[in-house]
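Changelog note: in this version the structure field was regenerated for every chain. One regenerated record is shown below for reference.
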Amino acid sequence: MTLLRHTYCCTLSLCLLGTLGLLAFGADADPEAKVIKLAESLPNREPIELKPIRRLTRSTEAYQETNQEAGNSFPGKENSGIVKSRQYPDLFWVENDSGDDPKIYPIRASGEDYRSARYAGDLGVTIANAINVDWEDITVDASGNVIVADVGNNRNDRRDLVFYIVPEPSPDAGRTTAIKRYFIRYPDQNAFPPQESERNFDCEAVFTVGDTIHCFSKNRGNKLTTLYRLDHPRSDEVTTLTKLDTLNLNGQVVGADASSDGKRLVAITYRDIWLFERESTEVSFFDGRVSWAPFRGDQVESVCFASDETLFLIDEATGAMQLAQLSDLSLVRAATSKK
């Protein structure tokens, strides 16, 4: 009887320990099991052809030399973001990486610079109360704002990651002001920097659904990406991002954009284009239809919807603006959920 009682107590203790372990660490201890794996069953196909639009004028050495001599500010070669204006037809906004002035630049769909009659000697609109530490993407929201993402974090040691909220200026303006600054932190980052195997807190891909900002991580510690959402931000305060989904997209995500209705999302790696389509904003992008295609480029890090059928991509290394047809992508998965 004593032996039976001892055996029962030991068994009960082990069960309780197991239950506590599941509560503490989750029923699935393997983080890979929670990853949305989309890159494991891709078809074998040739890269799609990107149609050259033009090499952006401001990326040429001749333009830089001319403006240096005239004493004008000018952007460098690192074009890190592009987005279509929702206020002005045939207009797109681009920005540059660290090292440039805190400026956003209007360009035409042809890739030509928008030259202001008011400020003919210089290009771009200066955001007076912003600093370009490491601008990595640009987007727009439903309320008519341009959002500049100063969220580059190559070493994973920044504590000043910020989104500048700027009412979309006239392309003829020379200066403007950010009306809000949303500082952010990652919920799963506890060291600045973390050890190299955990350096997954860089970001170069930002988009909005309505007025809500989303961002993909550019992971350096593993080959995955995590989608985060900025909920209930307050200006000049630090808001912890909401962690949503972790995916395998066959490489580091370096650019993203969403359609104005929030039902289509494009994300790019250095060699792949991914298109996610959903029937309702009430369901996840990753439960909808998924299309994909590889492409060739030197260092393409910017993408946006040019139209319902096309994308613009910009190569950061060369300043080359290129066009992709969405019809050239291959369907890799039908929708798995509908609302």
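Spot check on this record: Residues 47 and 295 are 4 Å apart (CA to CA). Residues 1-30 have pLDDT under 50 and may be disordered.
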